[in-house]
Specification:
The complex is a heterodimer of chains A (about 300) and B (about 290). Chain A has about 300 residues and is mainly α. Chain A is about 80% helix and about 0% strand. In chain A, strands 1-2 form a two-stranded antiparallel sheet. In chain A, helix 2 crosses helix 11, helix 3 runs antiparallel to helix 4 and helix 3 packs across helix 9. Chain B has about 290 residues and is mainly alpha-helical. Chain B has one domain. Chain B has a two-stranded antiparallel ribbon. In chain B, helix 1 packs antiparallel against helix 8 and helix 9 crosses helix 10. The radius of gyration of chain B is 18 Å and the shape is globular. The N and C termini of chain B lie far apart (about 40 Å). Classes of the chains: A mainly alpha (about 300), B mainly alpha (about 290). Chains A and B meet through helix 5, helix 11 and helix 13 of A and helix 4, helix 9 and helix 11 of B.
Chain lengths: ~300, ~290
């Protein structure tokens, strides 16, 4: 490890520690926004781990999230310890991701997008049907976990995700994925098992989203399919990650913070215009910010450096 | 028997919608995820004309089609052509097109929500029973399926018998070589995209006679159309029709025998089987 690596690791650790101090302010509203931001930060970063290098747009976040939420809810109802449900959710998320990946990731990217687009709806329909058959409507998640605990869990998970992302970026797997993203044909010809690499990383991403779903289950208290598998979640995660930029590990975070605040404001004052906002954000990303805020920052930096070189 | 015919009738209308998407994705090479929103917009137009002026949906389609054609042509020329020019590879164009049409889909849902509100809308048109081979069916479903058959037939003739149609099929096979034989690829791609939008909107007007729609149902139809197009083989008209009929039957079977809430799950089951065993489509040949 170089000196720079140590520097960025220390900096990230300090920032995470600062973020963990948020509940000390004692402001309930701040805490609630903090949970939302931390949740989207984890989801968007783990989304970008897979979709950033490969350019495969996954819209399945809501499916994994809902899977996690339901795992915890069902587990707790059957007397399981909350902490035990988190690893189970992770395993289930990874298994679902592996199945989806096996069916679609061997083919071109379009199939993957389409499949993930409907996945949350598919799982939702099956869960709803299961509840109709068993005659049960929703589930109560009653635990003694408070908002502060949820927040700390999410910050810790964010730390794990950043560390994982950093490790993957330095590993052979990360290198393989970057080659796949540049040119899949070349990757295949240079002996990379492209499907395996893609499926593995998609499993990491899916497992993380499932764990986030589990962690948030106690916050909802009452869980029903429409809430747990809300398709809006998948789109928000995609927008935030792309808005920030997927070229850097910290990129999605740069998108998450402003967009969460914007989205909260819009949905509080104009609840009917949120879809319009999502649509416009997609268009802004494609036409104005194809590389996200990260791209903007980096080209700004480059321009600054060039000017200094001339002076 | 009852299920089979209901399924075929539903499948006929699905064929029309999927044809629209196939023109856009197979021929113009733009994965249009806002397809379902145009369907809903077509349905809204039919609803509005029928409730406000008692205009039959079968006449409304003659207003809806040119309008949808013009709007889609504009979308292609203004928004998508710059992306086609900018794209360094087919993969990048796909990602850009997906994000853009998603944006368009959400914007149109937002606009429709603002204009019409989030309510379901439906009207009663030709809701009379009709007897076919001993069983009774709703006349509006039969009419919609018949209209779909006529339009699909017309499209098939156009694609196979006219110069423009054949050029478009040539683009579907290979856009680079199509240019070499003197086909105006940018103009005809815009034409195919616009035509696809028009066909979908007409399908929406027909579907609204027997299904209840609301501003946000578009994505469900987009998904079904995508499943049909992939199952039938991208750019393959015959495959699209067969796949649409299959999906129509399967959905009706699942809805009548198991649970009406599982129709998408049924479509997905079919989709997974196709992806696992015949990713090139029902009639497609393996390319690599």
């Amino acid at each position: 490890m170089t000196k720079r690596d140590w520097q960025s690791l220390t900096l990230s650790a300090v920032l995470l520690a600062v973020a963990a101090c948020l509940p000390l302010t004692g402001d309930a509203y701040m805490l609630s926004i903090g949970i939302t931001i931390a949740m989207y930060a984890v989801l968007a970063t783990s989304w970008a781990l897979f979709s950033g290098p490969t350019h495969y747009i996954s819209l399945a976040t809501a499916a994994f999230f809902g899977l996690g939420t339901y795992t915890t809810a069902i587990g707790i109802e059957n007397g399981m310890n909350y902490w035990l449900t988190l690893p189970i959710a992770a395993i289930l998320g990874a298994v679902l991701a592996a199945l989806v990946g096996f069916a679609t990731l061997r083919l071109s990217g379009v199939y993957f997008v389409i499949f993930t687009l409907g996945l949350a709806e598919l799982v939702r329909q099956v869960v709803t049907w299961g509840q109709n058959v068993s005659g049960q409507k929703g589930l109560y998640v009653l635990t003694d976990i408070t908002e502060v605990h949820i927040y700390w869990q999410l910050v810790a998970l964010a730390g794990i995700v950043y560390l994982t992302g950093w490790a993957i970026g330095r590993s052979r797997l990360g290198f393989a994925l970057r080659i796949i993203g540049d040119d899949e044909e070349v990757a295949r010809h240079s002996g990379i098992n492209t499907s395996r690499a893609k499926i593995l990383l998609f499993m990491v991403s899916g497992a993380t989203a499932a764990v986030v779903g589990s962690m948030l289950a106690p916050r909802y208290i009452y869980i029903e399919p429409a809430l747990a598998f809300s398709p809006m979640l998948s789109f928000l995660v995609v927008i935030m990650a792309l808005l920030g930029g997927t070229g850097r590990l910290w990129g999605p975070l740069v998108g998450v913070i402003p967009f969460t605040l914007l989205f909260e404001t819009i949905s509080a004052s104009f609840p009917n215009q949120t879809t319009l906002l999502l649509g416009l954000s997609f268009l802004v990303i494609v036409y104005l910010l194809p590389r996200g805020f990260v791209g903007l920052i980096e080209s700004g930096k480059r321009r600054l450096r060039d000017r200094e070189a001339f002076a | 028997m009852d299920i089979l015919i209901t399924g075929l009738l539903l499948g006929g209308t699905y064929a029309l919608i999927a044809m629209g998407l196939n023109l856009q994705y197979g021929m113009a090479r733009i994965m249009n995820l806002a397809n379902g929103e145009f369907l809903v917009a077509g349905g809204f137009a039919a609803f509005w004309f029928y409730t406000a002026g008692q205009v039959s949906p079968l006449l409304t389609i003659f207003i809806v089609a040119p309008l949808a054609f013009a709007v889609n042509w504009l979308i292609y020329v203004v928004m998508l052509r710059p992306l086609v020019r900018r794209a360094k590879s087919q993969g990048q164009l796909e990602v850009d097109a997906i994000l853009t049409t998603f944006g368009l889909a959400f914007v149109s849902v937002g606009i429709m929500l603002a204009l019409f509100g989030g309510d379901y809308f439906s009207y009663s048109y030709l809701a009379r029973p009709i007897t076919l081979i001993g069983d009774t069916y709703a006349l509006n479903r039969v009419t919609a399926a018949l209209a779909a058959v006529i339009i699909c037939g017309g499209l098939w003739l156009w694609l196979n018998r006219t110069r423009a149609g054949m050029s478009i099929r040539a683009i579907a096979v290979d856009p680079k070589s199509a240019r070499l034989v003197g086909i105006d690829v940018p103009r005809l791609s815009a034409l195919a995209f616009a035509l696809g939008g028009a066909v979908t909107a007409v399908g929406g007007a027909l579907i609204s006679t027997f299904l209840t729609l609301d501003a946000s149902t578009g994505v469900m139809f987009t998904l079904k159309a995508l499943v049909i197009v992939i199952m039938g083989g991208v750019g393959d008209v015959r495959g699209t029709i067969v796949a649409a009929l299959l999906l129509g039957i399967l959905e009706t079977v699942v809805a009548t025998l198991i649970d009406p809430g599982l129709t998408l799950a049924a479509a997905y089951l079919l989709f997974v089987l196709i992806l696992l065993f015949r990713p090139q489509g029902l009639f497609g040949r393996r390319t690599s």
